[in-house]
Amino acid sequence: MNILKSFLRKKIDEGRVADWFVHTLLEASTEGFPEVVDFINTEPEFAQSPNLSEENIQWFLQVVFAGNLQQLHHYFPLEQLNRMREISIRKFVYHNHDINITEDSILHYEEYIIDLKEGISEKDIANAMAKAIFYRCELNDFQTDHFQKLNAPNPIFLKEFSDILIHFLWNWNDLLGKYKVAYRLNH
Questions:
Q1: For 107-126, what is each residue's pLDDT tens digit?
Q2: Do residues 154 and 45 touch, judged by C-beta distance below 8 A?
């Protein structure tokens, strides 16, 4: 039955999948960012509020996108993975009208996520994203003395924040359960 199901899945080309991927991430990140800022600013584990602004969303978009790029290798064979990454990055840069978002900046954030990641699961990716935001926003300056001296996120904050950020990871299982991603020659 599962074999028959895989043959009956509707085919969709890589460009269209990349469009859905990028647009959904941008929409979810844009809509969810005020809640992320509110969570950070009202976090009781901090000695004082970081007073992050909802206007500074570009770095958040890049962290979320870079974290999501880390998931692709779980779902695509190498050749298709490279094409999906290239198409998705190009579309992400195109749909952001901020001159500071470039392919290089995205790759920089992705390398940073890789350095912070401790495993390969979604929880590990969300945890790395939380750490990237923690360090990017210099949140250590707002922690209690104990954690400031350790120069590491308070584990309670990190767990709660990771649990929020996991909702910003694309659900590839859902999409790939319904569609078969087909190669497209012209992107």
A1: 999 999 999 998 888 999 99
A2: yes
Three-point CA angle 81, 83, 86, nearest 5°: 110
Give the 3-state secondary structure of residue 60: helix
Lowest mean pLDDT among 1-5, 12-16, 67-71: 1-5
Q: Which residues contact 68 (CB under 8 A, 6 or more apart)?
A: 21, 25, 168, 169, 170
Nearest 5°: the CA angle 20, 103, 32 is: 45
Distance, CA of 115 to CA of 110 (rounded, Å): 9
The amino acid at residue 59 is W
Element at 182 (helix H, strand E): strand 179-182
Strand 179-182 relative to strand 10-13: parallel, antiparallel, unpaired? parallel
